User: Fold these one by one.
Assistant:
Number 1:
Amino acid sequence: MPQLLLEIFSEEIPARMQQGAARDLERMVSDRLKAAGLTWDALTTYAGPRRLTLVIDGLPAATPDREEEVKGPRASAPEQALDGFLRKTGLTRDQLTERDGVLFAVLSSKGRATTDLVAETVDQVIRTFPWPKSMRWGSGTLRWVRPIKRILCLFDGKVVPFEIDGIPSDAITEGHRFLGSGQLLKVSDFVDYRTQLEREFVLLDVADRKLRILEQAKAACAARGLSLVDDDGLLDEVAGLAEWPTPILGDMDPQFLALPPEVVRLSMKVHQKYFAVRDPAKEGLAPNFLVVANVEATDGGKALAAGNSRVLSARLNDARFFWDEDQKVGFDAWNAKLSGVTFHAKLGTLAERVERIERQARTLGRQLNISPALSGEAAKLSKADLASSMVGEFPELQGTMGGYYARLAGYDDAVADAIRDHYKPLGPNDSLPVGGVSTVVALADKLDMLMSFLAIGEKPTGSRDPYALRRAALGVIRIILERDAFLSLKSITDVWPGPNLLAYQKAWELSRDDDYSDIKLLDELVDFIRDRLTVLLRDRGQRHDLVAAVFALGDDDLVRIVRRVEALAAFLATDDGANLLAGYKRASNILRAEEKKGPVPTGMVQTGLPNQPEPETVLAFAVGAARTAVETALETEDFAAAMTALAGLRAPVDRFFEDVLVNSDVAEERDNRLKLLGQVRDVMGQVADFGQIAG
Amino acid sequence: MTTSTEPLAFQDLILTLHRYWGEQGCAILQPYDIEVGAGTLHPATVLRALGTKPWKAAYVQPSRRPGDGRYGENPNRLQHYYQYQVILKPNPDNLQELYLGSLAAIGIDPKLHDIRFVEDDWENPTVGAWGLGWEVWCDGMEVTQFTYFQGVGGIEVDVVSGELTYGLERLAMYVQGVDNVYDLKFTKEGLTYGEVFLENERQQSEANFHGYDVDGLKRRFEDMVAEVSRLLAMTGPQGQPLVLPAYDQVLKASHLFNLMDARGAIAVAERQSYIGRIRELCKACALAYVERERAEA
């Protein structure tokens, strides 16, 4: 069966857009062909610096014939409606069929030549392609990511004839801009296309380009006893910047290794797209870099490596200039600058934010028994590096630079560490700050973010979270959960933003219509953190309803919440748990039905009544025993024991429902049984709100 | 075409580019006689990119960025430097090839060096101009900004211009293999760039950072702003608005803003408002320019 080959050849496509474009091309073409009733064996797309390519194998030469029934007006409809329908369908009245008083037309369409469909499809795809940014060029009207130079379109080895805004389809492509022969390449099919391109120094498939980069880069490093510092993001990018990627190992002036390695790496990566190189025998980076060129240079890359090395020196000279200048300036001058930097129009300057973090850190330090003086000092210096030249150049180095500068300036190591690490954790997989002071400042920083933005009513919505509040909340949660033994910090209320409430009140009153109250604001914080905890637990595989069942208890001790959810999940996975849940549902359904009728009796359950069925007595004693056991277990926060205590209810509950009729004719018996069910619900309710659990 | 016997001196680099782009049909213009921050701001680019009339020009434009001054102590950063600017409207289909031809003309062999087109969407918010294109890298160094103009003065362009901006000092440093801009050979005979410009950098840096009277700069800025509207409201002998003189005042205002900025006299909060005002003035000029061309047609 025939093959379709399409190549849209353009000027250089931004690396970051290439793979998304390959997916869009696949989706757009296959949607349109499928809609026309076509099927095929295999469809593949490729994207590279100068071309988007699509190949479909086993595509029929024509679309299938189709019959389609179209619903028309009612037979009783006015003349105009019928005329309109006939015009639309191109049929006459006697060709319509009538069913249940409604007219139908059967339209049959002959299959079309696939080439016609392809010509139409390519036109539509090019004109509506969802590039993140597109442009016009020359005097034309077409939009593409960069100017289109030619369109290759072959079906079954023959050019599919069309023209789009003056660009005719053809069987021609081009090889590598510099390494190729410079000849136009006439192509017959995909294998020929790919082979000719490779001969002309173009690797079509990004996977091949990456493989070539990694293999040659590692080999180049190994030849000098060095090893490559892996960087997948950078690999993706450089694989989109070269059709014939050629790694070259270059030398860097070793004096630059005196700079912090973060600076060297970032400068290489951000500005130059170089990989860093390590000497396995030594600490830190090696005085080398690895550049991925787009040419196999005629001198083996010597001139090119030397050129890149000079450029890198200039870059690192800049970085060293910033490093030296920053050390002459220092924290006081930077902090002074922060009073001129707006943090947020409704929240004042960065200096004001730093004051809040400092107050918060001192309070937390006192509360958690971690030097309030060091915590306060670290907090006070925590944002100063935002005014430094280096962070101005590399915003990614916030915190990192402050840490270096603080150490050089002779501050306590705990302070320097805290400045460096207080942004942590930066996501679910980032590590937590380690020391006590670092942890206190990290909490204070995040808490101020949350409180400030909640105060002015800036909660994240949907995918919009411009101030990364979710990340801040997740950070607070992870610190509380994972550092609890060390900090005796359990609950959200342990980190009350007390010292800054006046500031938050001011921000609230400037930006919101509703009346301020401490309680309202703190409730918003607790709710927000709980929501994030729910998401965190769900991401860890916990069921949403179990989390809700535990949250319903109103606890704000995060550690306890998590342990309770875990114990509950384990319990429900057992036979006893599942059955008891069913029993609970039955009991609470009965109680709910009764509650609708009027007040349900509560109080002491009587035992030893005349004619009292044995299962009723047994359950009464079991509930009593379970209550005591659950209470003891909960006092020591032994949730597994609490679940075991509940498990003891399963058999008595099952038997009770099997043998005893709750709705007895004797009012006294009925009341006693309702009281008993109420107690089952209450005892279980101490552990979790089982009513929230699905199943 | 020189095949790297002796690397080009700074002035020979300029002369080679002039010859090359002159042969491509460009009018070789001289620098604009008002301080600008970039070659784009020359009316031969910003205004000529508007409307539908074809236009081809190339020129050197001294560019002043007061905040970039380093008293002549930084080997790569200057508050006054040269850009080589080419504008081709509409952009020819083979603009990339023409550009690579210019590199060959100044002795850069693409089989020996790594020439790359790296995404860079250019915009200049003060003149409301934007475009898509690349930074062109030679062995990892940005040597040219290559842009297809999509909008100027806040107006979408009718016809797309191709704009090439070469950083002449950097390119020359590359070609000559020099690490310090002041060591560049300005002439073949050995006059250095430092001998021509070092003293200028020292004096101008001091004036930019500490010298100019801030109140005076602010006053003159306001004067220039007022002048733009006044001139635009007037008409010339053929009934045309006085776009060209008005635009000159926009350039002057823009440079005064840059000086105030270097003096540290622009608070963070005021910045956007200043830039916004300059952009509005520029837009007014652009609109008047386009209307004038339409009226003529």
Number 2:
Amino acid sequence: MRFLVPLVAVLVLVLLAIAGAGAHLQFLLGVVVPYAALAIFVLGMIAKVVGWGKAPVPFRIPTTCGQQKSLPWIKQNKIENPSGAGGTFIRMLLEVLVFRTLWRNLRTEMHGTPDNPQLVYKSTRWLWLGGMMFHWTFLIIVIRHLRFFFQRVPGFVQSIEHVDNGLKFLTTYPAVTNPGKLSAALHGFLQVGMPMLYVTDILFITAVTYLLLRRIFIPQVKYMTLANDSFPLFLILGIGISGVVMRYFHRVDVVGVKNLAMGLVSFHPVVPSSVGSIFYVHLLLVSTLLAYFPFSKLVHFGGVFLSPTRNLANNSREVRHINPWNYPVEVHTYEEYENDFRAKMKMAGVPVEKEED
Amino acid sequence: MAKQMKPNEIISEIDYKKMPEGSWLDQPAEIKPGMFCWGAKAKSIKTVGFPNARDWNPSEEDWKLPENWQGTVLEAMKDRLGKYRSFKLFMDICVRCGACADKCHFYIGTGDPKNMPVMRAELMRSVYRKYFTTPGKMLGKLAGARELDIKVLKEWWSYFFQCTECRRCSVFCPYGIDHAEITMMGREFLNLLGLNIEWIMGPVANCHVKCNHLGLEPHTIVNNVEFMLDDIETVTGIRINPSFNRKGAEILFVTPSGDLFADPGTYTCMGYLMLFHELGLDYTWSTYASEGGNFGFFTTNEMGKRLNAKIYAEAKRLGVKYIIGGECGHMWRVLSQYMNTWNGPEADFLEVPKSPITGTVFENTRGTRAVHISEFTADLIKHGKLKLDPSRNDHLKVTFHDSCNTARGMGLLEEPRYVLKSVCNNFYEMPQHTIREKTFCCGSGSGLNAGEDIDLRMKGGLPRANAVKHVHDKHGVNLLANVCAIDRATLTTSMDYWVPGVKVAGLSELVANALVMKGEKERTTDLRGEPLPNKAGGDQ
């Protein structure tokens, strides 16, 4: 259920898009649905983040992962246990940009025998690698797509495309110094038809596939997997595959796509006549992802910035952290205590406030 | 009471690869002897005014729940979601990547998949989804949502008392999700139904009225300290005269009551007494603030605050300038991350702690005005203010256990190590992934150190014990040093079970062993009465 239902759901979406395109529902699929999805995404994420933001942070609870600031001659770990804004900023930056925490991931193994067990902890970075590959290539691919939304393609988009085509250099420049068959073969391989192959496309599909496979084959991860986890993976894989198909195998009318995109961003939507139905598959899956986003675990995209165990400096011994809903509580007072135990205190020579009851 | 499991039986049960078939959503928890603590007694619940006070038995079918208990829990859940960003966020953003899965000592020691931190949190999240999210309301089980029924409640109870709030998972979570936050919420909700465990509720009730977990009355505290003073005199020839509840002292000393009660905590306590005496420190003990720890913290936020309030209140009544705190784990989580927020405004009369011996100002404590004994001692040693003979600890091969809370809720890592290396010649670290911020819980923290859940405790204690075993086998380590009262009690049991031959000691005990005091007689034994190397035998 946790794999099959989401897979079927994504396939149904694919069929819907194909059928819709065939039934001349281009305006619905190309304009109405994307607009609606984007609106749900934007409003939904705003609502989500505002909802989190409205909940106060009553206590300062950073998880300290290094030496605290204490005596001047003890070296503080300013990033893993920051006491100020600078260190906290760097801690967050490393977390968000290079997944610092996943980098230190470990794998626990039980060795030895029942009478002499040996627990072993080994560094493991596959999840880090898969996560990094997935998120970074996703970002680059999204940035590359900006070329559809600008009349003149912005310089940074071109630069990214250029670098993303990086393997071209491997195949052309070494060819000058090392004119081998390998180089020529690589060049041929990477040039699937006309367009140059983007490195990110390969990495992206690889990463999503890895993230999906580990949910199926690692027993613990399979146990914790819900449809909520496999659905976005199937969806994103579908987006990736439809995109790759469109670009390399079953070319669509790129000018038509750009017209549609430009129409959408300028709020003068036009529906080109000649874009293939595979494009509408791609677009419907993307729209689904956008609309699904705010209601799913994908909100970690915004949430990671707000995590109180990471984004707070460990300075609560130095500066008072205010809890807005802190309220007075009933305390068993010293007076009550002394009233209970006065005789015993006096007997033991412990000073008292009042000599008699 | 079932027979206690043997170590090899525990190991044989563990298979990380084996997971139950089907969906966890409909696999209820088993309340198994040896794996749970007795339910809180009516008397204890009533003492602090918590709801639904009645005697009940977790292993019986009927938990004597109040009418409309679901409503009570869901209402509280809604309330806490609005009060704690951590809770709300951690309900939403987990992607179930599994990075936390094999980081939990209870998972490592039991192999029970619901002890993977992510799964323990999912027990709560599944209910959150059902009542507070659109997909959960619409899609139900398909979206991982389920109703809060009695099976789910029992599952909560079982697993939120199989978490020691050690926060090791939060070190490894890419979003910093801290499952202690979720356990804390879970326990808040359970407390609304009178579903605590007696091993927590009893000490809380004691602490409320008698001002310490163990229920030591003022004269007992004085007597217990007197016994220690006798022992100190036997070892050193010096008679110490500490004061209790003395107004006008410069410093109030607060430590967990476990240190006053049973060995090996009492040896740590003797260490404090000897150190402060040697320094001529102007300090006082208090019978009212006679508990540094805070089991209230393991019930509800409010109860934590109620118990904690006594420390500053007593500091105010006695007119001290600042506070020194003894060796304890969760005490320092509370003192570092909660005390000033809860009760700080009551303590604005206090001064920034300044060591009267070295003149060092503890700038990092300028808010709480509470200095950790290891910070205080490290500063003394650094300034050469203590005369130390580390060879008196030469019969010991020592390793150091970082307490969860001082490591991950504070960052007290180097101070105790500096002290330890100054007072011992033989110090060996455990493997790198089992110490410092990656340290393992003793297995019995957050109020789970009862007798009836001994199997659970030994399972949870396995990762720590196994790392000790590593250095025991490799270097002959025979002493596990720490700065935590619960550790001193629980690791002793765990070492006897997993690594016989390793004893447990608080850091201050080792300091006192090495401390050369003015006017002391030649010592022939350590604080435990065991002969000193090169002294009693004299043949080396």
